[in-house]
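Provenance and format

Records in this collection were gathered into a single text stream. Each protein contributes a sequence line and a C-alpha cell line. The two records reproduced below are adjacent in the stream.
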Amino acid sequence: MLQHSGSAEVFQSNLMAPTSFLAQLDYLRMSFEEPAGSKGQRADQDFVAVKMKCNGMLSVPTYRKIYQAACSAPEGIFVEVGTAHGASAIALGWAVADTGKSSKVYTFDRLIGGSRARYGGIDENLKIIRGGFAQFGVSDIVEMHVGASETASAVIPDKRGIGLLMLDADGIIDRDFRLFYNQLAPGAPIIIDDCGDRVKLKALP
C-alpha cells in the first residue's frame, strides 16, 4: 500500500485497461508515475482562498498538484471519496471548468465524526460545503452525496469511464479500489491521501 506522508500522493496509471483489483494490486503499486505537465492556470492565491474558506487540511502546493492532475486527466467523470469541506472537490471542479472538459465531479462523505464533528452535524457540514461550491463557482460541476462510498457510489452513471479517482477518507483504500478500479479510464490519475502501510485483520462471525 502507499503510505501517507503528510500530503496527497498523485499517481498516473500506465495500465492499458483496468482489470481485477486483487490480481493487479502489486502491479498497480509499481505502475504509477507522477503526471507530466498541466494545462491549468490558477494562481496560488486561488488555492489559499479555497484552503481558508473550506478549512482545508492539505497544503496549498498539494491543492495545486491535485488541480494539475485533474487538468491533465482524460475525459470522464471524476470521483472523490472523502469530501471534508470541499477544498479538493473545488480544485477538481476548477480543472474541469478551466480545461473545458465535459467531466463532472462526484464527491462522497458521511459527514460524521472526525474533523467534521467540530462544525456540527450533517446539515451544518453540508451547508459549509455547498457554500464553498457556490462561492468558487463549481456548483454546476461538483455533485455532493452524503453517505459511505459503498452506497453513494450507486449514483455514478454507468458506461462512463472514471477519468480521475481521489481517495481521502478513512484509509481503507482497498475497499474503494474494489468499487472504482475497474471503472478507471486508461491513464486516469489516482490521488491518495490518508493511507497507511498497515494490514488489519478482523475475525468473521
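Adjacent record:
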Amino acid sequence: MNITKTILRLKKIDLNTIFKFPLTNQMKTLFEFPENLFEQFVEHSDEKTKVESSILSLLNEVQPNTILNIGAGLDTLTNSVSFPKTVREITLLEKSSNYSHSYNGKKVIVVNDDFEEWESGHKYDLIIVSHVLYYFRDKSKAINKMLSLLNEGGIILFVVHKPKGVYKYIKDAAFKGNYEYSYDKLINILKNLGCHTKEIQIECS
C-alpha cells in the first residue's frame, strides 16, 4: 500500500527573539497569561491562514473524492472558494458542538464524537489531522486507526508545531501541559510502520 503522510511543521519566532534578550526559566514564570491567551495568539497570527492555504493547495493537487477532517474545529476550509470541486464528500469529526454553526454544505457530513472512540464504516482518500495529534491518549493506536480508514494510495495530512518557540510556549501556558508535543513521536511511529513521508515547513508570524 502506497500511503503518503504529509507533515506541515510550523516554524515560529523564538520567545527570546521577541523580547530581544535571553529569558531564564525564572523570568518566564513572571508572565501571566489570560484564559483566552491561545485564542488571542491565533487571532493575531497568520498561522491559520497559511496552514489552510497549504492544505487547499495540496487538496487541489491530489483532488480526493472523500475527506475526513479529524478535530475539524471552526470550518473555514470547505467554505473557501479554493476548496476543490472534485471533493464528493467531507466528514467533519469534532467532539465539541461549539463549531456547528460553521458546518454547512451538501458535501458535509458532521460527526460529533471522539476519534479514539468513534467507529467509522467508511474509508477516505485523504485524512486531515491539524493540531490534533497532541491530545490523543495513545498516539500509536490513533495513527494505526487512521491508516485503517484510508483507501488504497490515500494520504494523511498532519499539522504539528515545532518543538521549541512561541507556539509551543503559549500552548504550554494556555493548556497547562494538558497536551503532549507529538512531532518526534509521530516521525518515529511512521518510520516504524514503513510509511513514506514528505515534510513541508511553513513560516508563520
